[in-house]
Amino acid sequence: MERACDDERRAAPEPETALHCDAETILDAVRQARRLASEAGAAFYGIFADDASQPSICIDSEFPKVSANSRRICAADQPWLRRQARPLEPVWWHDESRPPNNGAAGRFALARNIAALTPSLPGVALPVYCRTGSGFVVFAGHSLKLDDKTLCDLHLRCFPLFDAARTAVELRPGSVDSLSGREVQCLQLTADGRTSEEIAALLGLSVHTVNRYLAASTQKLNAVSRVHAVAKAIRMSLVE
Amino acid sequence: MIPRFADIHAPLSFATRSPDATGANDSEPVAMTTGPSSPLSAEALAAIDGIATRRDLSRWLATACRIAGAPHFLLVATMGDASWQDERILASNWAYDLVHLIGVDHILCLAEGEHTVAMGAPATRVLHAANATRSAQANDTLGEYGLAAFCSLELRPGPRHYHLVLAAPSAGDLKSERLGELQMLSSYVLSRVSKTLFASDVSDALSDRERECIHWVAEGKTTDEIAVILGLTSNTVNSYLAHAIQRCGARNRAMAVAAAIRSGAI
Fold it and tell me: Is the Cβ–Cβ distance between A238 and A176 less than 8 Å?
């Protein structure tokens, strides 16, 4: 049921605001994000969704504008930002302009250290894989207060937050992330060796519908055949 | 058909660790204590690095679930992860005969019903044995085996997700304040090990020619196009591909391409 609604929402015409957003749900997502940020002691937060090759910003702490930090993250050239190279584990970084002495965001058993995503601000980034897609949430600030236990709790709450933000904000149309949940599901089952008939039986759809989903995803991925689409989707980590 | 979980099941009566889990190769890489006050995260985290086999994974999950109040667990793959329903149960410490008495289909319903706790969902929903599955007989059997309360946690370590079913003698045993942590840590573990533990390795199985053909199929080429590219006849290309599909243990070209990419062969 949910997926069907989701598909309809995606198919709806683009709203004419610069940000492509759904005003009712976006404020809720912003409220959720602010609450988490203040609990973590973060001055900056940003919710990023995976796009074709680089992350795109959904919402950040300067909503409805986009902060310089977010723009820098979207344009940064760090392997971790590519979803193929991103395990679920959180990552953290310290303020590179200061000596790493008062490690407020240091010493996580749970997280890996990477080069700073936000220069001059210590922070953490928490990857998420949700029904609505994949991405990560960044919290940064000089008074960040986190330990392994609170980091784990924060990470868990980033999943509903990401779903809320990702549903509210449309990324640029035409990007591969515009594959719907059903399309990804059909591609995944195809990669698992299932035929259209089997997928139809498993998902409770008609064979014709399954074929339409697969044709749509093949087209969106700019592939020439179903197998080509599967190969591209795996390489982009849309499916496993 | 012999289900895969046969080698990792443990008797229902185990108190701390099942005897068969201590044997063989290991030097206790995933040892954790289960004192009532032990923080789940610190010890569970320290043990994550030691997980190298399915048995290690099973033992880690068993201990982590026990800290969260559930003596029994089942790890279930989402649909499509394996060709056979039985193979969707990736790890468990349920009694082997219990899994078969209940039936895999009913267990999958238990894992994937509406009561499933999504990542970060605020409320924990506990199912009681009386309405655990749609079969009254199966529910009775669960009760007889001392499993009265169930909770299914959704795990999202990556694009593919899983369900971790916890089972306890009574609903009060499940420590609701620990379930979120268990859900997150188990997801971390699966994010690390699922690729190596649940994927078949085909990287060495393919010959150079087969690899070449599969490579071009993954680029969207047809048999005829590959024949021209490689200077072979279409029949030869098809025969290479048929062999490659067989060696990947795949059912068709799409599955073979997927397996080859996952294993890094192409």
Answer: yes
pLDDT single digits (tens) B155-198: 999 877 899 999 999 888 888 888 888 999 999 999 888 777 77
Nearest C-alpha neighbor of B156 from the set B111, B107, B118: B118
What per-residue confidence (pLDDT) applies to B2? Answer: 35
With 0.90 as the threshold, say if the pTM is over it.
no
Q: What is the C-alpha separation between B257 and B217, in angstroms, rounded?
A: 7
Please report the pLDDT score of residue A196 as a whole number.
93
User: Residue A157: what pLDDT?
Assistant: 93
Question: How far is A75 from chain B, CA to nearest CA, in Å?
Answer: 24
Q: Which one-letter amino acid corresponds to residue B131?
A: N
Query: Strand A133-140 vs strand A123-130: parallel, antiparallel, or unpaired?
Result: antiparallel
ipTM comes to 0.72
User: What is the Cα–Cα distance from B229 to B214, expressed in whole angstroms?
Assistant: 13
| Distance (Å, whole) CA B261 – CA B266 | 5
Collapsing DSSP to helix, strand or coil, A83 comes out as helix
In order of A13, A178, A185, A219, the CA distances from A174 in angstroms are 13, 7, 19, 11
Beta strands A44-50; A133-140: pairing state: antiparallel
In the structure encoding, which two tokens stand for residue A122, read together? 């210590």
Amino acid A14 reads E
Prior bond of A64 cis (ω within 30°): yes
In chain B, what residues touch A159 (CB-CB under 8 Å)?
A: 118-120, 156
Distance CA A23, CA B82 (A): 41
The pair of three-digit structure tokens given for residue B34, joined into one six-digit string? 């289960």
Contacts across the A-B interface (CB distance below 8 Å): 123
Compute the distance between CA of residue B104 and CA of residue B80 in angstroms, rounded to an integer. Answer: 15
Structure-derived torsion over alpha carbons of residues B31, B34, B37, B41, reported in degrees to the nearest 10: 40
What are the phi and psi torsion angles at A139 (to 5°)? -125, 130
**CA dist., res. A103 & res. A13, Å (int):** 48
- pLDDT category, A8, cuts 50, 70, 90? very low
**Chain B residues with CB-CB distance to A158 below 8 A:** 120
Query: What backbone phi and psi angles, to 5 degrees, belong to B79?
Result: -50, 140
Residue for token pair 């074709």:
A52
Q: Distance between CA atoms of B200 and B182, rounded to whole angstroms?
A: 27
Adjacent-strand bridge partners of A129 = A134
Q: What is the average pLDDT across B101-127? A: 85
Which residues in chain B have their CB less than 8 angstroms from residue A192's CB?
80-81, 83, 255, 258
